[in-house]
Amino acid sequence: MSFWDDRYRGADYLFGTEPADFLRRAAPLLAPGARVLFLADGEGRNSTWAAAQGLRAEAMEPSAPALEKARVLARAREVEVTLHQAGIEDWDWRPETYDAVAGIFIQFAPPALRDRIHAGIARTLRAGGLVLLHGYAPRQVGYGTGGPGAVENLYTLDGLRADFPGWEVLAARDFDAEVAEGAAHRGLSALVDFVARKPG
Hints:
By secondary structure, the protein is α/β, with parallel strands linked by helices. It has helices spanning 3-8, 21-26, 45-52, 64-77, 111-124, 140-143, 157-163, and strands at residues 35-39, 56-61, 82-85, 98-104, 125-136, 168-181, 185-197. α3 packs parallel to α4 (64-77). The mean pLDDT is 93.
């Protein structure tokens, strides 16, 4: 059993069933019916909520137990989400496929893999498409309220801008807030929001 299978095998939803507050904030930027890919979406709290808002939601996630819980959540919300069992390391970033790509707390990726993910996002977005990234800032390591212990995995706004050069930045925030998302994300957290539009 993989690390993530082990984390997701319990009956409870590890991060809860409500979407990240970031997704609620960013949703008004998404056109009705937009095709949105959610990266490493776990138990489906974000993709199923997006589908309930009228978006064409797809989610990729390597963990079979997490995907089964996402299916249950989609049925409960009476929505359809296209679910892909796949790891982000070998995801097929098909060119110009999505209107938006969302990565919400996906900071398991060390810098080299993060570079590949961001290049893949740029490739798979259509012209004018949006990247939506939300995660922890480096000072989160000292807070101990969630996320990886590897500071190099965490986001800075300068680093994100550098990864998407020439893109129109629609939201860029580095802030502290109380988070209550299931058992795994709880307490004062150092957060980063980043939304940018692909040129063209």
